[in-house]
Fold this sequence. Notes:
By secondary structure, this protein is an all-alpha fold. It has helices at 2-20, 45-56, 59-68, 73-99, 107-114, 117-150, 154-170, 173-200, 206-210, 218-228, 234-241, 248-275, 284-292, 294-326, 335-353, 358-389, 404-425. The chain has a single domain, classed as Amino acid/polyamine transporter I. Keywords: Cell inner membrane, Cell membrane, Membrane, Transmembrane, Transmembrane helix, Transport. It is a multi-pass membrane protein.
Amino acid sequence: MGIKGEKLNIESIVIEKEQSDPIITQSTQNEGFKESSLRIENINFWDGVAIIVGSSIGAGILSLAYGTKNAGFPVLVFWVILTGLFTTISMLYVAETTLRTKKPFQLSGLAETYIGKVGAWLMFIAVFGNSLGALIAYTTGSGRVLSEILNVPPIIGSILFFIPAVVVVWFGLKAVGAAEKVITACMVIMVLILILATVIGPGLKGEYLTYMNVSVSIPIFTLVIFTFIGQYAVPELTRGFVNGDIKRLPRSIITGNTIVAILLILVPMSALGLNGPEKVTEIVTIAWAEALGQWAFFTANIFTLFAFLTSFWAIGQSLLTNIVDKLKFPSEWDLKFRLIALSIVAIPPFVIAYTGLIGFVDVLSLTGSFSGVIMGILPVLMLNRARKIGTREPEWTCGRLAHPAVQALIVLTFVSASVYTIMKTFNILPSGW
Length: 433
């Protein structure tokens, strides 16, 4: 009888220990995450990769060759590698911060948790301003592309673009991940076909790809770093991965940014190598159409539309949940509040794009610079604070990537890009192209 009693006591101790242990094993790793106004949803690894790619590959990649023409292709490659590395590390800081937090927050919610209300509002303004500027660009750009293809007024083209753009965002993170995966795969295939046709057909000239002028390299640095900014997508991935192997989170960030870096190198390489710095067009698709024929015109413009669409989905979804998080809506799936949040995402870009509010659009470039400073500094502060007062044990950490020297370099990189953009806007420094 005494032996039985001891056995029961031992079993109860084991059960209590298993229940109190932090989240370490695969079978119990979801414990410690609590539902908030943002629902935990399931996405797979390639959904996550596609969301990262979609958030970065948009209007910027189409003008990168033109922005590079004075500095040269080797300068572009250097900045893509350097800024891609630092941006990826910054995104990994956000990833670890989310894993140290029980509730699934967006960036503004994480900032409020670890920095305070001022930090939360700074982060929300950065995300909102950067997102709004991008969504305006996709609205006007899609209208022009569809106007060329379908011979309709640009506003009709934008409306046609908005239908699939807004509908997918309405259905949430899982729908965005699935749609991003399909369209991103199509984008990669199309751009590889265009590059291969360029190499086999007209060909690339080595002298166009080897010249460089380091004295005008800073503008490329700022252009690339603002193309790479995607920290706002990381909390979305976290709440999509917590029901499985959480190590998919850092892997998806690294894989996604690697694909982004490859595309940011290959597309300008094709345009510059084909036409040279003197003849490179501001929009890379025009050069392909002129060199390869009508099929390239349609292929390149469909690629452009897909780039706009995937970016709209990733940015729109993140902005919607940031609005839900910052404005303390009871649930992202409450019909009334979801309609309000989606209206804030969809209506302002369309109105600004087609009411001639040019002055306001100009202000968005400064907002983008402000966003760069915030995205460079606050993730560092949030990570350091989360390591002191975080509410759960993370399954993965940044390790040596969070060394103070690395953090200092990341802050310096983002702040330098923003300072240059502000000085260029006020004509204190030349634009460089």
